[in-house]
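Order emerges. For instance:

***
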Amino acid sequence: MYKITKYRKIFVVRFLAFFFIQIGLVTLLLILEPVVNEEAKYQLNQLFGVKHTLPQVITSNNNDASLASQTSPGKAKSGFGDLEASGDIIVPKDTDFGIVIEKLNANAKVVPNVDPTNERDYSQALGKGVAHAKGTVFPGQKGNIYLFSHSVDAPWNIVRFNAIFYLLGKLEKGDRIIMFYQGRRYDYIVFDKAIVSPSDTHFLTDSYDESVLTLQTCDPPGTLLNRLVVRARLVGG
């Protein structure tokens, strides 16, 4: 009788351990799903040669009116001549304030004037899109345009919000980032990428005599270990 009771206790302990391990793995997979999904889509696009392209003439999603591309100074473009036959056309989510990164198929609304030190403020903003740091300038203006897409309040939010910029590390010098602001389009070209400590805030406070776009997210994705910062200059600015 003693042996039966002993084996029963061992069975119960092992069953509970196995059960909670499985629950933990499922929870982890659910948390990481946005990141895994973005990576999988990117790799499939690379495998099949699919390119996502923003046409030079688009339809505004704000008022359904025809919006002619108004690019950066010195870079006039028109029509759909640069579209790839094997590509997908990107429709900007917001032409009043939005960001499109063709290489990553990243397309998001930008929420202006978000306090990066106020958890409640930026958590609400990141639920809608990418956050624009309060006190930094806007597209087309000289200075630092600082955008971020990460949260520090909970593990599931770190991954969920980070997913928009999850593939940011795949950008290289010369890649294009397109900003929309008040119905105008601004093209920025990447010139710098760095992984820095969370305590290194100079990328936020830096000032420039040209229009510089700074994008920030977490690195590795879904963690709080470091920050990945990508900077780009306005074409012709």
